[in-house]
Amino acid sequence: MADPAGGLPQDVSAAEALLAKGDYVAGRDLATVVFLALRMQRPLLLEGEAGVGKTEIAKVLANILDRRLIRLQCFEGLDLASAAYEWNYPRQMVAIRLHEAEGRGRDIGDSLYSSEFLVERPLLQALRSDEHGPPVLLIDEIDRADEPFEAFLLELLSDFQISIPELGTVRAATPPVVVITSNRTREVHDALRRRCLYHWVDYPSLEAERRILALKAPQLADRLREQLVAFIHRLRDLELFKKPGVAESIDWAHALTQLDAVTLTPDLINDTLGSLLKYQDDIARVQGSEAARLLAEIQAAA
Amino acid sequence: MDSRLADNLLLFCRTLRQAGLPVGPGQVIEAARAVLHTGIERRDDFYVALRSVLVTDHGQGRLFDQAFHIYFRNPRLLERMMGMLLPTLEQEAPGKDTEAAIRRLMEAMAEPRHKESEEVFVEIERSGTYSRREILQHKDFEQMSLEEQAEAKEYLRHGIEFVREYPTRRFRPSSTGRHYDLRRSMRLMARSNGQMIQLARKRPRMRPPAVVLIADISGSMTRYSRMFLQFAHVLGLQTHALHAFVFGTRLTNITRWLADHDIDRAMHKVAEEVSDWDGGTRIADCLERFNVDWSRRVLAGRSVVVVLTDGLERDSGADLQFQTRRLQQSTSELVWLNPMLRYDRFEPKAQGIRAMLPCVDHFLPAHNVASLLDLAGLLKSRYSRTTRFAA
């Protein structure tokens, strides 16, 4: 059941159904948090290992709610000019010269700082609604940005407004749907965390991962898919430097589809290990006997 | 909202707070709102609604889970338990911690201490003998008496300056900077209606690198590690980006406990919470734990890692050299402090030491105040990454 005014789900089950419609496999807990974020108009902070579907959910939300997706990729040194807005200096200089040439001596100050000279970047764009409603703002990998940026963001997320000294305050008529992701390479500040609804996205269960692969790599045979998922789950139990995430499972599934694989064999695993593991140490550890051992375990359990 | 539910929620939040979860009043209200939206018919929805507001970090999850399952199964049970615990909880507030704090406060409010001691030292120097300060600086920690230890601590506190900074991508206005600040220039130009073109300048902001200290607290290292922790505390007061770990048979992150401004309280907390003091050593295993669990979280950007250990490994599963090499590759600068260097004719013979040595950028002693001050000096000086590849 959807709210006609914005397509927002009315309860948790509706949220689950909506996510399923967007081909996103989510447990009821994630659906609950998404539902609350939409209803309470609070940002959603998703933390978890790389490749578990945090960024994906923002795209899915934009899709199913029929909103624009505005993406801000964070990095260290991300500043106001790249994230929020910047003044169009060349254009301003030309305007000044024109003023002079036309002999207009009056004060140019006000017109120089009007919205036609303002270059809007993602955060400011997110405050503008269009005919579909307020956009979905994805602030990706906020752990890569630094503390001054977090402080600025806190202000934005509290009141959904940006103060531009020369122009005035820009406020959002309706707050955007904000999704913030973090890979936890740095601890995000407490104040920002408390402003958001927090959810730790874990690796999916066997059943969930099977469903994900059924959606994302449909050409894969059922039996092979089961072997795949079982193998990956055992891999995640090992002491690896970087465990394979869902993105890697999907990549592996695609790779095996391309190779017309029917069933897992040690050779096949060794050849395609690069789509699962991205560090040489991990590959060296798993290749050969370890992979064969895991495969034998799966076959015995099946 | 049903008043009984509201009361229960309030009490639950208070319980969480006492258990150590930082729950503010704003969060309590938000939790109530969230519950209103999800309803209380389904227990799992109710659980997730509370968790999404009250838990702000993955590490708090388990505590919340336990509290939730105990409380909402039988609230009376938890109340009774809290009632029984109350006497021990009260002990925390007054007591010798506060006394120590008060004592130090009084000392701090009196005449500035280092000025005094400097006067004393100057007098002694004038008399022509070795100054006490010099003797103290070079005395081995193992051989210090309790008073000398206290003096050494004071010395460390005043002898350490800021860690060196490196340029970041952010800028700040500066009349002597090398970059032009177009935005400010435009503003200045607009003020004069375009008549005068003034080019404002800016320069990069500097910031200190993340400093990670990893100290071996096993039996052989007792005195050294305790002094080192004092050093760590002082450093922590001056830079935000400090992380501290200790290890013996396992690795523990003590950053939060060390963050207390009062050094006695900080040390007390660390002593309480860490369980493997003065025990055996498992260097390779603990370094592996650091590499896997922590390195990506605390070594972002530029970083300096200082490891304090004598390198005498008991037994290990992981390869010590491999782990040290990996650590070196995750950070800009790896410093190894080894108190064994107190012996003038120290030669790296032990297998553990030989394994680690080629993988570190600096190999320094750590047995007296002078060596720790040298370390502070090193942290202050510039280190270029290229020197690592030149060797």
Structure report:
The complex is a heterodimer of chains A (302) and B (391). The radius of gyration of chain A is 24 Å and the shape is elongated. Chain A folds into two domains: 12-84 and 121-201, 3-Layer(aba) Sandwich (Rossmann fold), CATH 3.40.50.300; 206-296. In chain A, 48% of the residues lie in helices and 13% in strands. A five-stranded parallel sheet of chain A has the order 2-5-8-1-9. Chain A has a two-stranded antiparallel ribbon with strand order 3-4. By secondary structure, chain A is of the alpha/beta class. Chain A has helices spanning 12-21, 28-40, 54-64, 80-83, 89-101, 109-112, 122-125, 147-159, 190-195, 206-216, 222-237, 246-258, 266-272, 280-286, 289-301, and strands at residues 44-48, 69-73, 85-87, 118-120, 136-140, 161-164, 168-171, 177-182, 197-201. In chain A, a hairpin with a 3-residue loop joins strand 6 (161-164) and strand 7. Residues 1-5 of chain A have low confidence and may be disordered. Chain A starts with 11 loop residues before the first helix and ends with a helix. The longest helix of chain A is centred in the C-terminal third of the chain and has 16 residues, at 222-237. With 391 residues, chain B is of the alpha/beta class. Chain B folds into four domains: 3-90; 96-159, no CATH class; 168-207, no CATH class; 210-390, Rossmann fold (3-Layer(aba) Sandwich). Chain B has helices at 3-19, 25-38, 43-54, 61-71, 75-90, 96-109, 113-126, 132-138, 146-159, 182-191, 222-238, 255-258, 263-273, 283-298, 320-330, 351-356, 369-380, 386-390; strands at residues 166-173, 179-180, 201-207, 210-216, 242-247, 251-253, 303-308, 333-337, 362-364. A six-stranded mixed sheet of chain B has the order 6-5-4-7-8-9, sandwiched between helices. In chain B, strand 4 (210-216), helix 11 and strand 5 form a beta-alpha-beta unit. In chain B, helix 9 packs parallel to helix 11 (222-238). Chain B is globular. Chain B starts with a helix and ends with a helix. In chain B, 30% of the residues are buried. The model of chain B is unreliable at 84-95 and 108-129 (pLDDT under 50).
